[in-house]
Amino acid sequence: MEQAEINQINDYKKIKKAICYLSKRKADEVDLIDFAASLNLNKRQFTDLFKRWCGLSPKTFMQAVALNHAKKLLEAKKSMLDVSLEVGFSSTSRLHDLFVTHHAMPPGAWANKGKGLDMIWGVNASPFGMALLFTTKYGLAGLAFFDEGEEKEAYEDMANRWKNAKFIRDDGKIKAIANRIFDPKKWDKNKPIEVILIGSDFEVRVWQSLIDIPLGEIDSYGELAKIIDKPKAARAVGAAIGRNPISFVVPCHRVIGKNGKLTGYHWGLERKQAMLGWEVGVKGL
Fold first, then answer.
1. In angstroms, how far is the first alpha carbon of the chain from the final one?
2. Neighbour-count burial of 14, counting CB atoms closer than 10 A to its CB (0-12 exposed, 13-18 middle, 19+ buried)
3. What residue spans define the domains of the chain?
4. 3-class secondary structure, 143
5. Of 29, 48, 130, 237, which has the maximum CB count within 10 A?
6. What is the value of pTM for the model shown?
């Protein structure tokens, strides 16, 4: 066996130990300096190795583990204090900050499907027909399109994702948000539209990967599956894309079939084609 292969195997053994160590300890119990030393590495060497193998830093990995554990506890109706202590946080404020960072909302609102949230909604014209938008003080929560006579159906589709929120119609406020979304002159990469994504961990990963597809470009379901390290999950990726609650801003329309054909789109293939053509025009301006 060549030395490069031996080194790769040894590195894998270290990463395996690291994942086990980070996954089984609470946030405040982790000592990266001591753990790195146990692998005959310093903290910087360990961090570089971990990022090379896992694609994220040990700290980000720990946050993901803590967040996933906290979500399960909240779904089981545990109190904020109990959840904070269980995942290794010294106060509920740290749990709050983690949720706001990753989900743009407090953990209580996330666990209770919007309970306590004022959900402002309304309809507005767009380049692709009538749009229905939902927003909260934390960000955009839903964007759907509908044709004549379909407003009620579109509303219910969005509202059912936030069963316990208080819904308030305000077309004026929605108009201001819609202008930022659909008018390219008002786009500002330094002030992006804040979005709230509620779904399974897999769905959220898929939706977040959509945002990285550049304007005017397309990708396939298979390529997207590879990007999220699930190369055999193209069909599951397609199903997750079909459940994307924030059309256009989270650009599920930029994903096509492996053979280059347009495939199913929740709001209609004609609308998908219109979006892709419109974006090519905007990119060329």
1. 56
2. buried
3. 3-111, 118-186, 201-284
4. strand
5. 237
6. 0.60
- Which alpha helices (DSSP H) does the chain contain, by range? 3-23, 32-38, 43-54, 58-75, 80-86, 92-103, 107-111, 151-159, 171-182, 201-211, 221-227, 234-242, 269-284
Phi, psi of 115 (to 5 degrees): -60, 130
Q: How far apart are CA 130 and CA 279, in angstroms?
A: 18
- CATH ID of 201-284, from 3.30.70.100, 3.40.630.30, 3.40.50.300, 1.10.10.10: 1.10.10.10
- 116-172 pLDDT, tens digit per residue, is 778 899 998 888 888 999 998 878 889 999 888 889 998 998 888 777 888 999 999
Would strands 118-126 and 129-136 be described as parallel, antiparallel, or unpaired? antiparallel
CA distance 234 to 30: 36
SS3 category, 26? coil
The SS3 of residue 152 is helix
Handedness of CA 26, 27, 29, 35 (dihedral sign): positive
Q: At what angle do helices 3-23 and 43-54 cross, to 10 degrees?
A: 100
Spelled out in words, what is the top-level CATH class assigned to the domain 3-111? mainly alpha
> Is 284 in contact with 184 (CB distance < 8 Å)?
no
Catalytic residues: 252
Burial class from Cβ neighbours inside 10 Å (0-12, 13-18, 19+) for residue 62 reads buried
Once rounded to an integer, what is the mean pLDDT over residues 189-211?
80
Q: 121, 174 in Cβ contact below 8 A? A: yes
Listed residue (179, 183, 178) closest to 246, CA to CA = 178
